[in-house]
């Protein structure tokens, strides 16, 4: 199992630490679709009992990142093309509303941080960084929004398709196109044009969905 071992035997929040480590490994593709999550093995890696591991796996199952299969137990959940499409469509409904709400509330500090992350994304030549840089850019802009529940929905939806987003960015024109679209969204935010920022965000998400589904069908 591709997890870094860690001694958390004396840590009060053992369940949260295991949860965060498993979630990151799933999202980044270190744990692959269908890979079993054996509680005893994970407990041994973290030098803890099976109780916090069981709690962490239950939380991951609630988020849709893990599913329980008969005879196999907990495994890393996958997504069908239909499920992937549904999640991207949900994002295209929710995230434009978040950024529309956020634009009037964006401070100079948030805009400067987002501009820096936008540039870092386009400048990076390391595919392993692209997923994190992409997410950092969007979530920096969204952080100005006071639509708490919308942001939670978007956060969980992005978690579900993070592996697919990373694959989409690595495709031939995924990174280049995403970079151009990021600069367009950034310019709209700096101009205070909330409607344009929302429209561009929706188009950005639906364009990524179209490219990703085409990639899945071609495999």
TrEMBL record:
- Give UniProt keywords alphabetically: DNA-binding, Transcription, Transcription regulation
Q: Name one GO molecular function term.
A: DNA binding
**Highest taxon above the source species:** Bacteria
> Which residue ranges does the record assign to the HTH gntR-type domain?
12-79
Q: Which SUPFAM superfamilies match?
A: GntR ligand-binding domain-like, Winged helix' DNA-binding domain
Q: Which InterPro entries match?
A: GntR_C, TF_FadR/GntR_C, Tscrpt_reg_HTH_GntR, WH-like_DNA-bd_sf, WH_DNA-bd_sf
Matching SMART domains, A to Z? FCD (SM00895), HTH_GNTR (SM00345)
Q: What CDD domains has UniProt attached to this entry?
A: WHTH_GntR
What this protein is called in its record is: Carbon starvation induced regulator
Q: Which organism is it from?
A: Roseibium album
């Amino acid at each position: 199992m591709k997890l870094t071992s860690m001694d958390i035997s004396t840590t009060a929040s053992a369940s949260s630490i295991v949860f965060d480590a498993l979630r990151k490994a799933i999202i980044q593709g270190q744990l692959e679709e269908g890979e079993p999550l054996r509680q005893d093995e994970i407990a041994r890696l973290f030098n803890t009992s099976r109780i916090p591991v069981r709690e962490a796996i239950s939380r991951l199952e609630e988020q849709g990142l893990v599913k329980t299969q008969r005879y196999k137990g907990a495994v890393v959940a996958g997504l069908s093309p239909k499920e992937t499409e549904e999640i991207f469509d949900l994002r295209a409904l929710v995230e434009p509303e978040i950024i529309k709400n956020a634009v009037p509330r964006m401070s100079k500090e948030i805009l400067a941080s987002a501009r820096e992350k936008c540039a870092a994304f386009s400048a990076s030549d390391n595919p392993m960084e692209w997923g994190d840089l992409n997410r950092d850019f969007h979530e920096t802009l969204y952080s100005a929004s006071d639509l708490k529940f919308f942001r939670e929905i978007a956060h969980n939806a992005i978690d579900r398709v993070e592996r697919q987003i990373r694959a989409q960015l690595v495709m031939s024109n995924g990174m280049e196109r995403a970079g151009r679209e990021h600069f367009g969204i950034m310019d709209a935010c700096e101009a205070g044009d909330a409607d344009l920022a929302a429209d561009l965000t929706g188009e950005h998400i639906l364009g990524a969905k179209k490219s990703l589904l085409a990639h899945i069908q071609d495999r």
